[in-house]
Amino acid sequence: MLIQCTKKLLDVLERKPVTYEEENLLFSWHANLITLNRRKTMVLVNDKNRYVVVLYGLKAKDFRRFDEVILNAIRLVLLDECIDEEIVEEYIRQAGKVVYGKTKNSIYVGKMNAACNVVYLYEDLLLDNTVYQTFVSKVASRYWVGKQEEGYTSPSKEMFKDLEDFVGRPIFKCRAVELKVTLEIENHNIWRRLVVPINTTFTQLHKVLQAAFGWQDYHLHEFFIYGNERQDVSFINHPSYSKDGYKAIVNLVSDEEAFDYPNESGIEMIFEKGIKLSEYIPQYKRLMYVYDFGDNWQHYIEVQKIIDNYDKNYAVCIDGEGNAPPEDVGGEYGYDEFLEIISDKNNPEYENMMAWGENQGYKEFDIEEVNKKISSFYELSC
Fold first, then answer.
1. Torsion over CA of 69, 74, 80 and 86, rounded to 10 degrees?
2. Which of 29, 48, 255, 283 could form an SS bridge with 25, CB 3.0 to 4.6 Å?
3. Element housing 70 (H / E)
4. Does domain 2-167 bear CATH number 3.30.420?
């Protein structure tokens, strides 16, 4: 594997560049060393498809074993893309020994610098507890780039095509979880059944749920993870209270300001950034997603099945029923009032309420439309 480095990176590595021409550009990368949040950050860009791999917070010990660190970074990002582990290991094997050279020419340097500029945009998503930034790598690999006369594409799409050509078969294989998500509204039956890769972060799951229920992501959200222990009935007024009586063991919050307030419940509170479903599933099988703390939409999530050989790297909705309320309708009471008005064309508020509902995203549940939104989310971010 050829790593073509800027002079700054070569100096830090204390390596003398070799003269080496990689015949297969899929095994060739350009590398630059930049500083983000005052930490040494390396940005790797594949020469064939411009796929991006990011390492963050590199220390002297990491540079001393850099061959191993680079290969592991590429391995972990590809696995996080849900690419079959056998294919990933075959890629690493055929890439061979890591060798270091100088940057090739201005074209490749320009592509590398463009990737670095994209990574700068996502520095707030970088995790402090690991050098291997798989999430930011995936996000940075989904920016649009020109492809000669073929219009625009993304480095991730091109990498997936190149790996399929490399092995001659479909490349995706991962563990996934089948979830039934029920929006808790009295006298209404509103639910979705989703299949989600188990390495999905809770931030990503939030986006999937937004698409599945037609929410517009106007408000804050949080997740509760439930254990098997029952909770005291006096806990009924707490936001984590489960209708099935189970006690929450973890509260995943989406806003760090939540930590500024006293935590009187005793439930462990964790910032959701970077937390994956696999850290709690399948050990725990009951969750709750709360969206919009004003209208307080509670979505009960039940783990129904673990799938070992899922053949996609994104979530899909496989079933569902019922229309979710429009944004800012005023909770359950407001939703019932909204439905009453739009069911009567003679109501003087009918036309205004229909227009308002449409503006707020209210529409009939359409599984194809939901899956288009979910797919679009994965293509644009991950």
1. -110
2. 48
3. helix 66-80
4. yes
pTM of the model: 0.92
Per DSSP, the three-state class of 284 is: coil
CA quadruple 247, 253, 256, 259: dihedral, nearest 10: -10
- Going from N- to C-terminal start, the domains of the chain cover 2-167, 174-324+365-380
Distance CA 142, CA 121 (A): 13
**How far is CA 293 from each of CA 186, 219, 260, 339, rounded to the nearest angstrom?**
18, 8, 17, 22
- Pair of tokens at residue 95: 């890439």
Distance CA 80, CA 265 (A): 34
CATH fold match for the domains 2-167 and 174-324+365-380: no
Cα-based torsion angle of the residue sequence 58, 61, 64, 70 in order, rounded to the nearest 10 degrees:
-40
User: Could you tell me the two tokens for 329?
Assistant: 């309708």
Tokens of 298: 């509670």
